[in-house]
Write a structure and sequence with these properties.
Helix content: under 10%
Oligomer: single chain
Number of strands: 26
Order of helices and strands: EEEEEEEEEEEEEEEEEEEHHEEEEEEE
Structural class: mainly beta
Length: about 425
């Protein structure tokens, strides 16, 4: 009757160094050709560590003579077996670990006396999070506190520390793992905006962290109450938030990229679509005012909206459906934008940035393609006012400023909340 084996737990990801006799844990389940576990059976396990599946030079190889347990499982520690004559190095700690994670070739012999090893397969050895070269430390203890600083967690040069050379444990993508800031300051935070990891600078002493437009924002706290960052226009008498939703700060110039903020499709809440880098979808319109995803929904025909049946209660007042503004704030009306525009010194981007609201050239996001358009050239801000199948918005450039009355609701524009 033939024999075979399968890997049940595989090569464990672990963070132990070869210290005090510890090695790389391996577990196999031994079965016969019918898939029945071979319990309490003597086997020989041959393990070969190499930097490349085709390489022989520099490999480390050892044998373990074992018995499977009552479940047909055999367990071994690579590093504690009998070193073979095929091994190019005499002990595991002498293996030339490279930046690339090495392979473990696993072979099993259930005949013992016949020296008939069956190939099980290759497993990739995953380095521990800290110091992937710890096994090669020049010090005798091989611990994180190694006397030789090249391989120490407290090393001044730290050429193998994850925080210094991240290339071997992560990649350049910002979407598949937490990317730590390159030059972080004390108190900096990292949050996921549904597309990438974004850094929020640390706050000041005594401030409280709140969520505004889906973005963590530091707010002042005094006498038991939050002080919302507001600006006041003495000409119109209106109070506004000092920044766009999704922005980490108020504008310091017309092209201050940190102040642009998010781009909302008219009538949608903060569900992730407003991120400038959110995914797009053109497979179907939303069937309700609360989509089950955070994709930016593209249109292909009239009514040029992100939702199939247009709704007329969205963004209407403080209690309007899908109001994305903080409590006590709402989307401004066309009339309120007209009053602000009339108060500017000039009807253009200079007047916008020099107004109490300090509005920047946010650009917009196309509702038909999902592409960013005219960023740093045009400013686009939604109003809550509707006009048939369209909605109205404030637009300004370096030469003009006006209310646009027929804007397709699938477009992504900035939002500045007014207090009421």
């Amino acid at each position: 009757m033939g024999n075979k084996s399968i890997i049940t737990f595989g090569l464990w990801l672990f963070s132990l160094f070869i210290v005090n006799g510890q090695g790389i844990p391996i577990q196999l389940s031994v079965m016969d050709e019918y898939g029945i576990e071979k319990t309490n059976t003597q086997v020989s396990l041959r393990l070969t560590l190499k930097n490349d599946t085709a390489a022989v030079t520099g490999q480390y190889q050892e044998i373990h003579n074992l018995f499977s347990d009552e479940f047909g499982i055999v367990s071994a520690l690579l590093g504690e077996g009998i070193v073979t004559t095929n091994s190019q190095v005499l002990e595991l700690k002498s293996f030339a670990f490279s930046i690339e994670e090495p392979y473990v070739l696993i072979e099993l012999d259930t005949s013992i006396a016949q020296n008939n090893y069956n190939l099980i397969g290759y497993m990739r050895y995953s380095y521990p999070l800290l110091a992937n070269r710890a096994l090669m430390s020049d010090s005798s203890s091989y611990a994180l506190s190694a006397d030789t600083s090249r391989y120490s967690n407290t090393s001044d040069t730290a050429d193998y520390l994850a925080t210094i050379d991240p290339g071997w444990y992560s990649d350049s993508s910002s979407t598949n793992e937490l990317e730590l800031p390159a030059n972080p300051n004390t108190g900096d935070l990292v949050f996921w905006n549904n597309t990438e990891w974004v850094t929020v600078a640390s706050g000041s002493e005594g401030q409280i962290l709140g969520i505004f437009g889906g973005v963590p924002t530091w707010q002042d706290f005094t006498n038991g109450s939050l002080i919302t960052s507001d600006v006041y226009n003495p000409i119109t008498g209106e109070i506004w938030m000092d920044r766009n939703l999704g922005s980490s700060q108020s504008s310091v110039s017309s092209t201050d990229t940190a102040s642009y903020g998010s781009l909302y499709q008219w009538g949608r809440n903060s569900d992730g679509h407003e991120s400038r880098t959110s995914m797009t979808t053109n497979s179907t319109w939303a069937t309700s005012s609360t989509p089950t995803h955070g994709d930016f929904i593209l249109y292909s025909s009239s009514p040029f909206d992100w939702v199939w049946l247009q709704q007329y209660t969205l963004w209407q007042g403080v209690n309007g459906n899908n109001n994305p503004c903080p409590t006590g704030y709402r989307i401004p009306t066309k009339a309120e934008w007209q009053a602000e525009l009339a108060s500017w010194g000039t009807s253009n981007s200079a007047g916008a940035i020099n107004s109490p609201l300090a509005l920047s050239l946010t650009g917009r996001r196309s509702g038909s393609t999902g592409s960013l358009v005219a960023v740093g050239i045009e400013g686009w801000y939604w109003s809550s006012t509707m006009n048939s199948i369209y909605s109205e918005a404030l637009k300004f450039t370096s030469t003009t400023a006006s209310i646009q009355s027929s804007e397709e609701r699938a477009h992504g524009y900035a939002v500045r909340c007014i207090k009421h």
